[in-house]
Amino acid sequence: MRITTAQAKAGTLIEALPWLTRFHGATIVIKYGGNAMTDEALKQGFAEDVVFLQHAGLRPVVVHGGGPQISSALDRLGIESTFTAGLRVTTPEAMQVVRMVLVGQVNRDIVGMVNRHGPFAVGMSGEDAHLFTAVRKQAVVDGVPVDIGQVGEIIKVDPGAVRALIDDGRIPVISSVARGDDGEIYNVNADTAAAALAVALDAHKLIVLTDVEGLYANWPDDTDVIDELRAEELETLMPTLSSGMVPKMEACLTAVQGGVPQAHVLDGRVPHSLLLEIFTNEGIGTMVMP
Ligand SMILES: Nc1ncnc2c1ncn2[C@@H]1O[C@H](COP(=O)(O)OP(=O)(O)O)[C@@H](O)[C@H]1O
Ligand SMILES: CC(=O)N[C@@H](CCC(=O)OP(=O)(O)O)C(=O)O
């Protein structure tokens, strides 16, 4: 019998049924990286996916970055961007720009795109309602601690306000800025912030969207993507990883070791990668399990 286009479409919908059942009511923390936000059509696709998840009965929470957007704003102001161990060296002057770009620009853009579909997204900074409390973090280079300015390490998460929003049917969209009990504000890597929130919310999944297919086994060679690995395998790989992948894979490890059953790194350049990962049998990207 010939399968018509309409039947093939029905087949795709039915393939999603077991996943819809499994993830009904599940909290999914999605980290949306600055490198995955460059294309307008992809950004709109991301907003559609998040709203789709909400309508499908899941509870999506977005934590966003904006590293490239911060770097261009600093550049326009004539301030050089320097990174140590994958983290931005954040002077008090740069911190004002980080906060302005993440909370005032990137957050507003994402909230606006999601809300084209209805009154769902509510933007928050990690400073709001004591969501993230941080202390000053030092980077370690060749075993030596190095000062990197107002970069924060999250020591406490109070997810009360986020839970209230989710329970009210909203989609929280959160910037990775934290407050300190010392009255400072801190710049936190967005992968790290997403992992901390996923653990605090007892999320079912952490999904990290970036600009590569997943974790490559022999980087900078990009032929072999690792599709699945266990936490202990990742722990042994950690010292061999470089640049942006370090905080990303560290975040996956923190999440699964903190009780999140699955953490994924996905290619945000693939249209609707979120839906493909959650609702199809193949899954895509790299999955980390406890
Ligand atoms: N083993 C690896 N597999 C994949 N990417 C890697 C690896 N090691 C380093 N990278 C680099 O990490 C980058 C992703 O990190 P980053 O640029 O910080 O992304 P984002 O802005 O999404 O947080 C990739 O574009 C790639 O250049
Ligand atoms: C301390 C630190 O490095 N903070 C990051 C915060 C933004 C971020 O993490 O953005 P991406 O997810 O797009 O990389 C920064 O200033 O770039």
UniProtKB/TrEMBL annotation:
Residues the record lists as binding substrate: 66-67, 88, 187
Keywords: Amino-acid biosynthesis, Arginine biosynthesis, ATP-binding, Cytoplasm, Kinase, Nucleotide-binding, Transferase
Site (Transition state stabilizer): 31, 248
Main location: cytoplasm
Catalytic EC class: transferase
EC number: 2.7.2.8
Catalytically driven reaction(s): N-acetyl-L-glutamate + ATP = N-acetyl-L-glutamyl 5-phosphate + ADP
Molecular function as annotated in GO: acetylglutamate kinase activity; ATP binding
Keyword Kinase attached: yes
InterPro entries: AceGlu_kinase-like_sf (IPR036393), AcgluKinase_fam (IPR004662), ArgB (IPR037528), Asp/Glu/Uridylate_kinase (IPR001048), Glu/AcGlu_kinase (IPR001057), NAGK-C (IPR041727)
Pathway: Amino-acid biosynthesis; L-arginine biosynthesis; N(2)-acetyl-L-ornithine from L-glutamate: step 2/4
Cellular component aspect of the GO annotation: cytoplasm
The protein, known as: Acetylglutamate kinase
